[in-house]
## 1
Amino acid sequence: MSALRRITVIVGYEWRRALAKKSVLALIILAVAVQTLILTLYSQFTAGTMFLTEEVKPFMWILGVLQGQGLFVQLIAIIIAGSTMSEEYEHGTADILLSKPVTRVEYLSGKFLGGFSLLVLVEALTTGVGVILASWFFGPQNSLQYVPLMFLAIVYSTLIFFCLSFMFSEAFRRSTLAVLIALAILIASSIISQLLAWLYITTSEYLYFYLSRGIPTWGSNYFPSLLMRELMIIPSTAFLNLINDPLIPIEAAKRGVSEAILVREALQQAAITIAVYAIVFILIAVYRLLKSDVTKKTA
Amino acid sequence: MASHSVIMVSNLTKYYGKFKALDSVSFAVDKGWVYGCLGPNGAGKTTTIRILLGLLRPDQGEVQLAGINPARDPVNALQLVGYAPELPTLQTFFTGEQLLDFMGKVFGLSAQARKERIWQLLDLVGLKEWGKKKIGTYSKGMVQRLSVALALVNDPMVLIMDEPTIGMDPEATAHFRSLFTNLSKEGKTIFISSHLLDEVQRICTHVGMINKGKIVFTGSIEQVLEAFTQQWVVEAELERVTETIVSSLKKLDFVEDVKVEGNKLMIALKEKKDVRGEISSEIFRQKGVLLSLNLHKITLEDAYLRALKGGQ
């Protein structure tokens, strides 16, 4: 049997394992419910304001898709990845799996791809729901040909926290610890990113600007919206400010360049940041699995 | 060490922090042997098994399964192995049938082969009625049975089992002991770690005794019994024990001592020699009525306890 086939078998196993967990299913339902609630509230409370002009209504699918990508999808990513490796040690099933004819790298690859492909399905669901809800509440939508690209951007942007939680799952071999630490980093990273942006605005010190872009949440939060700006022209600054990096207009004014140039620059930086973080986290997880013993049941 | 050994363990040393769990352990298991690994808790039995399966990395030494190191080439080494862990925790979200099917896939069995094998194995371990039920609803003994079925899914050349009958009822225990004996007759090599000395003596052809991370004895059951036998004892049950019989037996030149326990005589011999004929003749000569006469060499339990004390 080929390595690819063995990985595929473990991917199938991982799907069954993750879907058997009620907490994952509950979070998926909650994510869709919150997405529906936000769009309902937005349609009710912003009607007639600068946030919901007639010009912007055909682009509301962007909000529908991107707000789903925010907290809940990151949370689902952390919860799925946080238990992927560690639960097998906690339940003692890692022994059963790793005493079978699979290499550790195949096992880890299968677990990673299984968990991540499940997350991709959740993201496909929230993206689809976002587009449907936007059409429902705000009428016909424009530029829908970019939905697949936006979906891929969302998938790519969730890699950071998925890989971070996956790494902790293998490093600590405790699901609760892995999820809590990854969540703490997500929250701390958001706060620090805002703080650094504020320090840059008040001091004009570029160190803060670059530091804020090195924070994991910057790449994961803004990569899809930066791509959206690269692809489309949205006819409302107010609407854009809801989902965009606030430093771009400030920086454009300061440097006297167009926002489009800065968006392209930021898009590249976000793509690199996500790739670097994801690769480093995965390499640490691989190193840990290859170099250490398979621990016995821990829970 | 024989090059045709199915399991070969050479100079294995393993530390957990500063604790030396295995200290230069070496032994070999040939094809068709049922090898019992005996030792007290913490002796290093499970550590040895986990190294054999590539789950732990030894600090020194090497293991080979059919000439393949499982740490370097787990795919080819573990393809030949079936493993049943001690008190296993299986994936409770699967049914017994689904878990066997998944394991069959891991071993690369075709859909047709899996279909045939799964129900055959469930029947073999007495779980046919439970195949379609979630493992979460199984009792401990049933999980243990399923674990043995899982170990057999790939029709392995080597079976490694850690305390395989723990948690099973007496009927199941007897069934599985007979299953292991039959599997060994089919040419499978079986490595069993067990605390149940009676079980090991019944089903194993060879034993390895391990204590404090060191192998204290390895050999066939006959060799171990011979090596650790200090004295043979003949147990004679009489209708009535008389002083004349006891004193006449004591005078025999091959008798070391005679102890009276009710209507039984425990006759300790000077040499490891079967002298039941001479003893029965002497009892008849003294007008005794003999009900039974048994020669006690030594049990595996006695040998094991002596081995752990370091004496032979």
Note: The two ends of chain A are 33 Å apart (CA to CA).
## 2
Amino acid sequence: MNLLSPRREVGEFKKRYKWMALAAVIAFAALFLRAAHMELVDYDHWQKIATENITKTITLPATRGLLRDTAGRIVATNRPAYNVYVTPQQLDPAKDVLRLAELMGLDPRQKAELVARLAAVPLHRRTHQVEMFRDISRDQLASLEQHEAELRGVDVVAVPVRTYPFGSLAAHAIGYLNEVNAEDLERAPDQGYRAGDTIGRSGIERAWESYVRGRRGVRRVVVDARGQRTDEERNERPRETRREPVPGRDLTLTLDMELMRITERAFRGHPSGGAVVVDVRTGRVRALFSKPSYDLNELAGRLSHERAREIIDNPLRPLIDKTIYESYFPGSTFKPVSALAALGDGILTANSHIECPGYYEYGGRRFRCLQQHGEVDMRQSIVRSCNTFFYDLARQVGMDRLARYARDFGLGERSGIGINTETSGFIPTVSWYQDHYPHGFRGGFTLNEAIGQGNTKVTLMQLAMAYAAIANGGTLYVPQLIESVNAPDGTVIEEFQPRVRRRVNVAREHLTYVVDGLYGVVNDRTGTAYDAHVEGGVPIAGKTGTAQVSGRAARDDEDPRQTWYYNRSHAWFAGFAPAGDPEVVVIVLIEHGGGGGKNAAPIGVQILQEYLGPRYAAEQAATAAAALADPPDAPRAGRARARGGR
Amino acid sequence: MATLAKGLRAHFDWPLFVTVAAIAVVGVTNLYSATSAAGARGDMYIQQIYWLTLGSVVAALVVAIDTRHFERQGFTLYGVGIVLLLLVFLLARTIRGSQRWIPVGSFSLQPSELMKIFLIIALAKYLHNDPKTEGRTLKDLVIPAAILALPMGLVLKQPDLGTGLILAFIFGTIMFLTHLKLRSLFTLVAVFVASAPLTWTYLLKDYQRERFTSFWQQLSGEASKEHILDAGWHAHQSQVAIGSGGFFGKGFMQGTQNQHRFLPDQHSDFPFAVWAEEQGFVGVMLLLGLYLFLVVWGLKIASQAKDRFSAVIAVGVSAMFFWQSAINIAMVMGLLPVVGVTLPLFSYGGSSVLTVMMGVGLLMNVSVRRFSF
């Protein structure tokens, strides 16, 4: 022990220990206060961040409602599309990206693009999923799934995509979807749309958006710092919650896609036009056809710039709904309205007649007729489409009376179909001419209005509803496109009844008289549509029309054939069938189709024959068979006929 | 040996033993939770128990040896420490940009940890042999400063700012024991303040500077979201863990920040955050109490020491406990920038455990021998 150094005095240090202990206590008191502040005072703040840290909200997309036609055929549905998301940080920029490109079957240019896009992802986004490919093919999906284990950081996510099994058929009525844009989000901030959602852009998809859209669900899952789900069955603090999405409502349309097919077939060889078929007993729209059309699937997907240009620049205007959005001179299809105006106010009678020399002189001008008809009465004038008779009629009836009747039939006002932008067309009056023409109103204007030229403009939809009113005895319906709203399981939630807009103020006998004339148009040898008439088919009544178009001067760089085409008249046919007990009305317009009797009537007749023909023939056969089987005993025969007529 | 055994029985420092044992038990338990998250090394707490066992043996040895032997061999031990620090540069692998560990078999030794003890012993020896009681001037500080400067320079070179600072703080505390003239003190402060910008520009590495700026941004509330995701991630997430612990905590193994891997380095630098999250304010009070008691008790031991060497040893070890626990906890709570300072007996690490246990052994040694003469 004596080897060790002697112990030294410690007195020098004595005073210091207390200071040191005090310093330690103060320091720990500070730590204590800080801990108290964090864990007691600011607890809620930190707790909220901690909860946010481990919760991830996953959106569960709602299934958009299906659209079916009146026979239950699916018109719009959803299919899964597979999108590829990449988390850049988890990917080896050389090896993995190469492998991904290989599995996706990318060509060198696409591969370079992929590398560039990955490199462009900003640093703070590199731990997040970034969308790299949309709607990959089945082969690509299969190859990615097979090699799933090789590629960490590559995820395939299925999202629903709207598809339209009928492609371009009834495209304008059905409508399409695409992604919401900043403008939509700003316009309707409380509607719950988020970037990436789709929204109906046209047609029924747009007008009925709130019904078919449904409501998205939300699922909160617990994740770790890398954003991966932790599946441990421990007592997680914020429990996983789930609010199921509410699927959208299904809609049953009044459209009949089979009839649409018939219509499309009938229009072969005519590049541009439209057709409307409406049930005259209900106002239900069975066909809304506008040509040329576009493939809804193409517009719902990602349209390339070139393709979009192509559609927009097409001179035949495929984006325009020619049944609702465009209005035309009705031409001679307007004559029944003129006739009813004259009859209704007692200005002319069924016996009124006139001598047609091929023209009509009025106010020092000659108004042309198509030919020299000779002596014609009102029925003859309708059947043979004599302008002279209607010029004289117009002179006597006057413009404002014509306008009153036209408006009563719903012409010149929106039909209220409720989809797309509907144009109202135009029915002029004397005061309108006084306001808009430098020399005011002149009597000659009325003459042109009476034959559906001048400034009279109607839409196909309006004309269809007007002819339906003529056919059904004077009831003007609101056109109906939606039959019912259904739950996903098919049960009917809401059913829509036909809506009568008003009773048109015309006498039944006047209607019968005019309808008889319309029957003659198709069935009399002298009728303008007689060539289209089908012997033994469904009896059809109708009216042809040839509407002159505003002249177009030839352009220097234009093909002369094109100039000729655009100066050709529009061809009309408005008809209904069966003539005795009308079911449907058809309106056909062929843009620049030439004469209505020669070009439009055969199409209208073909549509009606193909649509009603088979059923009509079967009913006729059944009635005939019943009459043969039963002895001519009055009460029993009546019963049999009732059965056969069902 | 008979006297030693008798002395131990008679004067065994139970409060010291119980406090250290309590911290160690709580520390291992906490480490178990901290390393239980999926993907973490789950066997760390076992390793830690091995190290604690080995550390206890070392501590027992330290208690058995009379302090005067340490005094005599003081500079030799110091020399060994310096050699080990030099070996680091020859043998160490670079981990996360710095060289701190010497591989020994399947383990690695961190000489900078052991150096803390050797520095304390060397300074104690110097002061023991320099029984000056009148006020010291700057000239008297030259030699002890040199004793500090050599290992500190080597540690900073690794670079290991945290341990370097701890060495400096231990030195400062020990020097505070002695009577320094007021004028000299002011000169020191002035020199320190003047050299701060130079230190910032020339001595600190980029990542170290970044941590300081990040700290100021967070403290002043200017931290942006990008910043939190990047440089401020550690500090932010550890504060979230502590704050969300609340009064009673989320429960053992139930800390979401811990279990869902939002706390990086939860086993080495941030075990306190795990503890605070899972045991809440109650657990924090307990742990702060234990550390404070350990420090104050160490100072009490120093005050009862019979010679200068023992007193300086006890103060040095207490200072080591104080600075490490205070700096680590302050850093985890966002009161100080993030520096690599371990929490005694809470952080995982063999060298750290061994160093702490040596310190505990030294304290016990001084405490047991306060009556022996």
Note: The CA atoms of residues 87 and 102 of chain B lie 7 Å apart.
## 3
Amino acid sequence: MVALNVLVLVCLLYVAFLFAVAFAADRAAMVGRGTWLRSPIIYTLSLSIYCTAWTFYGAVGFAARSGLEFVTIYLGPTLVMIGWWWTLRKMVRVGRSQRITSIADLISSRYGKSNALAVFVTLFAVIGLTPYIALQLQSVTLSFAIFAEADPAADAYPGEQSTAFLVAAGLAVFTIFFGTRNLDANERHHGVVMAIALEAVVKLFALLAVGVFVVWGLSGGLGETLARIDASPIARWEVPGSRWVGLTLLAGAAFICLPRMFQVMVVENENEEHLRMASWAFPAYLMLMILFVVPIAVVGLEMLPAGSNPDLFVLSLPLMNGQEGLAILSFLGGFSSATSMVIVAAIAVSTMVSNHIVMPIWLWFTGGSAVVSGDVRTVALLARRLSIVFVLFLGYIYFRLSGGGEALAAIGLISFAGMAQFLPALMGGLFWRGATRAGALTGLGLGFVIWLYCLFLPSFGPSGILPQALFDEGLFGLSWLRPRALFGAEGMDPVMHAVMWSLLLNAGSFIAVSLVSLPKPIERLQGAQFVNVFRHSATPGSWSGGLARSEDLLIMAQRIMGAAEAQAMFAKAARGQGIAGYLPEPTPDFLQTLERALSGSVGAATAHAMISQIVGRATVSVEDLMAVADETAQIMEYSSRLEAKTEEQARTARQLREANEKLTQISVQKDAFLSQVSHELRTPMTSIRAFSEILRDSDELSERERNKYASIILEEATRLTRLLDDLLDLSVLENGQVKLHAETGRLSELIERAISASGVKDRIKIRRRREAEKVTLHTDLDRLAQVFINLISNAAKYCDADEPVLTIRPQLDGDRLTVDFIDNGSGIPTDQHAVIFEKFSRVGQARAGGAGLGLAICREIMGNLGGDITYLPGQDGAGFRVSLPVPEVAVQAAQ
Amino acid sequence: MTPRRGPVFVQRRTYRRRRTADGARMLPILGAILFAIPLLWRGGGEAGQPAADLAATARTAWVMGYLFVVWLGLVVLSGVVSRFLRPEDDDPDDDPDAAAGGHGGR
């Protein structure tokens, strides 16, 4: 017999292997290798999380109890999958074009980005999924128990409760580790997907192996097996028609609506084309999965003692026949099915909980303003991690409460029936433009209540949560409100009864309320974009804004997406518009892109709310209305094109005005500089002349006085030289005649040198990141030091904070090194950003000495070194970013 | 209703493409009908009767065989159809929703 210890060891090794695979896949994806990670095969295999432990163990139990009925659970998804051209293709396209993060996000987005709807769907999903997660825990626990029973030395078996707890805790760790590594749900979890694809292979192989063993090892061949089926208690085909059709429909609906299926099918989808392969390969997978279920059930019923749990035939048959290896393999198959489901379901639900419940509440609590400083990402990640723990804990509690006594199939169907309630709102949203938010809310609410009353609460047993009297006499003593015989529908199968009434009333009220209610413009707009997604893939914009808000937008985006990504995105958008720097024009297109990007992190409803806080209310433009009203499309398109042109011309005019303003400013500065330079030259010249005259003309000067005058002359001459040097330096740099002396050195030493050379240590506090400074550079170090010195002494000179602090923040980004110099002063006003790098420009008109050449020289130096220096807006004070290419060798050496 | 519709006759290739898409849409309906056919075979007999009159009723083994054959057929058909299906975003008339879009707007 297999010792329990061996089993635990195998189990741990398997988990460690999964960890390794997930880690390797994540890493490969990070460095851009592993295109096979994004192949349609992996996608198809990842869909197999539909086959949970309910399939692995429960299908055999289901078959042993009620014959072929179990097949319906796989017929439904098969039909949905081969009908991909109808529904799935549209769902995936909508999911990708709207950056959907979960099914709650999809439904809320479609109905005008309504957060109420999202919250409702999320809560529903959490309640509906809890029994399902409990079911997985139960199956793992039961399979452990059966090994413990067989092991004579199993005193160490910790008991069912603690096994379930340990499994739940382990799964939480795995999910947190690989599921919440990155925030943007659209960045996809390569590690997790790879691990579940692997588990898909393991469980299929395990079930097939047990099947082959049963058919050819125990029964003695195919013909013999068929004879045994004919002789078994389930020999006759006697499935009630209502259950056959009803369960098929239910399974098909659940396949589309289950949050975990939505996660792998839509959110993790890399490429719409993958559906092409999945459309036939996934039905084939399902077929193979259940190929041997009936033989296993029949042989189990025949060979195992009466009263043994049919849900565990897959394990107990090999065990009884001494096939320990096979039993362990089968155990791993069941373990894989349970774990993969729980992991993906936890990711899906935690995304929903954190995006639609925790984040809105948190944002509201922190003052509701989107423009405060601080990073939201850590909060979002923490929220997701806590939600994962919460969801798994809830599953564990349900497992304890329900006592784990029910047949697996019963629990699974309850969960399916709950999730199927999303179907009317989902399909209505994708195919019917008239569907409204009020309708969706009513339908979902009614369906949920009926599901709760007729199926979920009664599932705890007659004396569980609902009292027995309620079953006999109905709510308030009204006999037509009995939970098992609603509206007098007596004698129906309880599951079919609940599914029928809940879906009928759900869909009916959804349609009826939609017909009589009037949607808001944004709902109609979203409706048009969803229903006609294949025509409106490039969606019209719905924002309008002004320039002054770009910086606010950047500040907000930095908090949510992270500074580097937000800056990269803004810079890219600015480049696309032909503007240098980090602040693009807030065109409708840009705002739309930004909203989509943000919704990947915090969900559509929150992203929309945050942007509208800054930009003001979303305006539905002519272009948008055109999408809603198709009838007079041509005329409106023409006029809206005109409008777009006008807008573009206005933007161009603004850019021209800006350029003109810049030129005028420079010209004013040049004039000012000329007078400045004459002044700067004249002052020292005057004193030099005066003192040399004194030296020449007066004879009775003491030695001390003579010395003093001479040193004044020297000092003034030095000042003159320095000014001329700077001018000369600049002209050399500008003409590209400079000679660079490339050397190799450490960034940390360079910064050290710059700080001591600038001699400002007592005037400003400098904060550094020693760890990030460990980069080896190969460039003209003296020139680079000159830039650093200039920036440091500028900060010391101009920072007007009471306790000036300068933060130096280096960062390696691929083959580019950026070094940010950020002080805590009041920064540089937006209208000055454009000119501070120009020659002779000084912020605030000659507040401190210097001819205004420093930054101009810096820019020329960086240009000569192949890098760049830019002003970094959206920081606490003035921020400058020096960026520099770093050769590949140096990057490796640094790591 | 818009008076402006696509041309009545389209190129042969476009025509083929659209009919392939129609075929893809019909597949699940075909599957549903085939999967429901065993319901017609019940041949009388309530649940719980002895297995002696097995010959008079449909047998689980038979139905199972039938289901798997249909299943395999659907897999093969779906594989063939999806190979020839090409997305045609440039051709909105392909989409029945798009064509019906005019009715939805109020």
Note: The longest strand of chain A covers residues 805-813.
